[in-house]
Task: structure prediction
Amino acid sequence: MVRSLSYAAYRALSRRHAPATFQEPPARPETELIWLHATSAARMSALNDLARRLKMMRPGIAVLLTHAPDARAEGAPLPGGANWVMLLDSDHPASARQFAAHWHPDFCLWAGGVLMPNVIAAANEIGVPLCIADLGSAELQSSRHKWLPDLTRSCLDRFSWILTTNQTTARTLRRMGIAPAKVTVAPRLRGSALAPPCNDDDLEAVVQDLAGRPVWLAAHARPTEFAAILSAHRAALRLSHRLLLVITLTDPASTDTLKSALTLARLRFADWDSGDQIEDGVQVAISTDPADLGLWYRVAPLTFLASSLAEGARGVNPMEAAALGSALLYGPNVPDHADAYARLAAAGAASTVANGDSLGSAVVQLVAPDHAATMALAGWEIATEGADLIDMLIDRIQDALDRKRVSDEVS
Result:
């Protein structure tokens, strides 16, 4: 068995066994273009958050987000931070050259150690600055890299900046012959949520209207979840008579359905969007404007993240709520954000519920601010743990773009 394979040999093998599948892509814009590549679902979510923040800080920039086959589940919604989201699954030399020549990005950030040598080489050959982040020991010790040590070293050496997740990986790279100046030990690449904004006047008015009432929020609710949410609220009201439930909906068209369910459940409600006041007798407030989510996350010490109970549900990103200090409950169906929920649950910041009965029990236990405070603090720490690395990466990207802009002006 061959234990060492050069890049030239790999290129010859990939040319023989991997037919080109490059298809005509969208036109490349004339603006600055950043290329982000994700090798896992968690990294894809983190890069999408990075793209959102970068576009806020550098208006006009375009972002191409590519991903490995396993990084995006079939049927999952497209991330909203990038201009284009594409599967990148062919490392055939011809496809790699076509990809690099067409997009000709101004910077590439590769997340994870699942490498595509021809694609990386093609970008390097046309002068694209390359950075790899979230490189850990497990991927470097995979069977692929063990059998292709020369190829792995030559491929990684094309990156001008390598961020490893621990000192062990950094030492491995130095032993492979990678220049120490290229290697930096940094935290894992994690999504860093941008806390949704809030109108200060609305917040002050709501806090005054509530007058210290306990509040819980059911966010992103779907009609299939109305019965469980209202059942939970009725159960919680038996022990906390002044408890207020705020429900935000995924689809404003389901408002009438919710109002009918509330009437049948004999729950008094206010329509926030129509200007109803949250008076002391109101038991449920309805909100359909996504722009108000930041307000409700700040008001409620406990949030049930819906779109997660019914079979076939996919969940919503929990990090916005966690970043604003809300303890979290969620249903069992959250495949689009499984890693984020797992991290929050492991830290004690979130708990899963199976139905209306378990949701009601959890609300009764956690709705008091002092009970939810420990969970909320843990959630805030998880939601913000990736912020420093995201800031570091954005600074590096902007610095590279600024240098290129000056060089282009001089030439």
About this structure: The CA atoms of residues 270 and 285 lie 5 Å apart. Residues 1-5 have pLDDT under 50 and may be disordered. The radius of gyration is 25 Å.
